[in-house]
Amino acid sequence: MKYVVVNGFPRTGKTTFTAYCLKYLGAYGTAISTVDFIKEFAKNCGWEGEKTPRDRKFLSDLKKLLADWDDVPWKKVQAHIEQFRSTFEQFDMSTDKAVVFIHSREPEEIERFKTQLSAVTVLISRGARNVEELSNYSDRHINDVDYDYVIKNDGTLEELEQKAKEFCDMIRDE
Fold it and tell me: What gap in Å lies between CA 65 and CA 56, rounded to an integer?
């Protein structure tokens, strides 16, 4: 199984790029975000799904709190991976062509994925971003990672889909 950590500033096309990859990979692809569980938890606390700077800081701080408390984001990703792997085992299929996309922001967490899962990293970029305007630790430190690949999302959706297909072909062949 291969692991790909996807990162980028807000609104650069991370989710769209991953969706195109999953479309291309079919049953051999899955995705999880290290903040998905945090968002569900936050909704129970009254968060209404907004992505204002204040809301993004709340989510970032909540994720850090749950990570420090009991490594919750890591455990959620591991559970997702095991569930995906078990589907292949259930049908006696090889996971050699399977790819797990992990959306993660924090440099320390990304390094852990690289070290413990041999993950490759991808930065989705789109125009210039003013790091000083970003409201939280997770967004401010996106450039603190040495990425294996950079996908420039500076064209049409069709061009991004083509880049996703080419990326999937490349990592499956590695």
Answer: 14
CA proximity to 153, closest of 33, 19, 3: 19
| Cβ atoms 7, 103 nearer than 8 A | yes
70, exposed or middle or buried, with CB in 10 Å at 0-12, 13-18, 19+?
exposed
Q: Bridge-partner residues for 29, per DSSP? A: 99
CB-based burial, 52-67: b 16+ in 10 Å, e otherwise: eeebbbbbbebbbebb
Give 56's pLDDT tier (boundaries 50, 70, 90). confident
Q: What is the pTM of this model?
A: 0.92
Q: How far apart are CA 169 and CA 165, in angstroms?
A: 6
Q: What is the pLDDT of residues 123-141, one digit of tens each?
A: 999 986 655 557 787 877 8
Pairing of strands 2-7, 29-33: unpaired
What does the alpha-carbon distance between residue 23 and residue 174 come to, in Å, rounded to a whole number?
Answer: 20
Q: How far apart are CA 65 and CA 45, in angstroms?
A: 14
The CA distance from 18 to 101, in Å, is 7
As a whole number of angstroms, the distance between CA 44 and CA 60 comes to: 16
